Structure formats: C-alpha cells, structure tokens
What does this fold into?
Amino acid sequence: SLKRWNISTCTRIARKQNKGDVLTREYLIEGMSCSHCVARVKNALLTHPDVIQAEVTLHPPRAIITLKQPVNIEHLQQLVNEAGDYTIKPN
It folds into this structure.
C-alpha cells in the first residue's frame, strides 16, 4: 500500500534523521513576484541560527520552515525585511 505523505509524516522523518526534536512551521509570504524573490526570502530565512531548512514557493506564496526550536515571528519578519519588501505571516 502507498503511504500518504503530509507535514506530520515529514516532521517525523526529519526528527529521525536529525536524532532530535525539530519543528516544522508554515507561513504565508507576501510581496514575492518571481523566482529571484523566492531565493532572496529563502536565503534570508536560512541565516537564522535556528532554521534548519526553508522551502519557499511562489505559487502558493509560502515558506515551510524546519526549526531547531520555536522562533519569534518578529525575528523572521526582520530577516525577510532585510531581503526586500516582503511580509511573513502565520498560516
């Protein structure tokens, strides 16, 4: 039988791979209009020391972020602001 994949499944796999607890959070990103914007937002998020992985997409405009520990959204907003005129919001 085929296994259904979802965020919960992926989070459990990430926990096993990293041999520790990780958190996966999804956020809406406003202000992106092209692949260059996606790359800028992703690179900005990856500069945070608690961000393990960031998957940023244009359609839909979102970021799925894997974290070592909870991160204040204001810190993430500061990072994306430094990358350009972008806004990050909880999904």
Observations:
- Residues 7-18 form the longest helix (12 residues).
